[in-house]
Amino acid sequence: MSFGIDDLPVRDELRGKTPYGAPQLDVPVRLNTNENPYPLPEPLVERIAERVRDSARNLNRYPDRDAVELRTELARYLTKSSGHPVGVDNVWAANGSNEVIQQLLQTFGGPGRTAIGFEPSYSMHALIARSTGTGWISGPRGEDFTIDLAAAEKAIAEHRPDVVFVTTPNNPTGNAVPRETVLALYEAAQAAKPSMVIVDEAYVEFSHGASLLPLLEGRPNLVVSRTMSKAFGAAGLRLGYLAAHPAVVDAVQLVRLPYHLSAITQATALAALEHTDTLLGYVEQLKSERDRLVAELRATGYEVTASDANFIQFGRFEDSHTAWQRILDRGVLVRDNGVPGWLRVTAGTPAENDAFLDAVRELKKEQE
Ligand code: PMP
Predict the structure, then answer these.
(1) Which principal EC class is assigned to this enzyme (predicted)?
(2) Pocket, ligand 1, Cβ cutoff 6 A
(3) What is the rounded CA–CA span in Å between residue 13 and residue 133?
């Protein structure tokens, strides 16, 4: 027997656990991690090289600890895209929205405190809760994967969590949460505790509806979390950010590591933001491909959950893991999120989507 994790004096809550990990397999069509399939355009690649070269000249120095230039540009993007005025004091940035969420849980969760999410939802919320010593409460979701407001309000009143996660559009189901539901959950959370409500808008640029940023007005316990991994096509950059009351931005600074955001990351993100319009042009293409996938999946006889994201939950399968393997056998990697009967596919390029559609059509015939 080889020496393993459980032979080490690791924290009790980590014993027997497995790390987060979507398979990174080398197959022709990878539609499993909700990445943007379009590489960054060449002029942007050039601009990144230029900005990184400039910042390399100062790598003997620590980066701007407060990332002021970057936060200013992110605030400008949020203001322009939502029509809601967002200032540099309202914005905080970190290495991916996963780190944003970690900093929020380090600040507002932690030992003796709890967070709730309405599952199935983004599994990292629960995992980051665990790694920050925050108790996790699995809140309910309806049969159709919408949030059942009455049941959710009841869970909040009963558990009085310190943090409430609302993911909209939700991952892995794809559906957006109505504005009124988020408002009601915020009210319920304030009445119960009061607690912080984190609206995870990682996929909002792909949504048919608007961002919930305007709800920040007069709601200091609300946080909207965003990322450049999806709409900006920059998952490899690792840049996430939040918008909230300036007091929230001050609070997360109590837990952030000094100089957490490297000068290279800041320079690269600033270059990408200069090309926002081009990058968001790809979002439009992906939205129409997403809608085509929904229509084709339905026409083939699959059930589909209404999608406001760059991915689609489809089913139903008697055994989703076997279906996942059959699709993989045809060279297409989709995601089995462990939701019984369902799989998730990310909208790719038209050619990738065609390959996926061929695979699932064949699968359907096999199963008839
Ligand atoms: N939130 C949601 C809902 C996600 O699906 C993801 C990525 N899959 C993230 C946050 C984290 O993204 P990142 O750390 O790349 O910003």
Answers:
(1) transferase
(2) 34, 96-98, 122, 167, 171, 200, 202, 227, 229, 235, 240
(3) 8
Q: Peptide bond preceding 47: is omega within 30 degrees of 0, i.e. cis?
A: no
Place of tokens 């943007």: 36
**Ranges of each domain in the chain:** 5-41+277-367, 57-274
In this model, does residue 211 exceed pLDDT 70? yes
Whether domain 57-274 has CATH 3.40.640.10: yes
Give the H or E element holding residue 240: strand 240-244
Distance CA 74, CA 232 (A): 12
For residue 137, the cross-strand partners are: 116
Cα of 102 to ligand 1 centre, how many Å? 12
Instruction: Dump pLDDT digits (tens) for 218-247.
Output: 999 999 999 999 999 999 999 999 999 999
State the amino acid at position 139 in one-letter form: G
Please tell me the distance from the alpha carbon of residue 37 to that of residue 40, in angstroms, as a whole number.
10
DSSP states along 80-133: HHHSS---GGGEEEESHHHHHHHHHHHHH--TT-EEEEESSS-HHHHHHHHHTT
ipTM given for this complex: 0.99
Ligand 1 center from residue 347 Cα (angstroms): 16
- Residue-wise DSSP of 42-55: HHHHHHHHHHHHHH
- pTM of the predicted model as reported, rounded to 2 decimal places: 0.96
Closest atom of ligand 1 to CA, residue 229: 15
Note the pLDDT of residue 19.
Answer: 82
Answer whether CATH 3.90.1150.10 is correct for domain 5-41+277-367. yes
Query: What is the average pLDDT value for the chain, to the nearest integer?
Result: 96
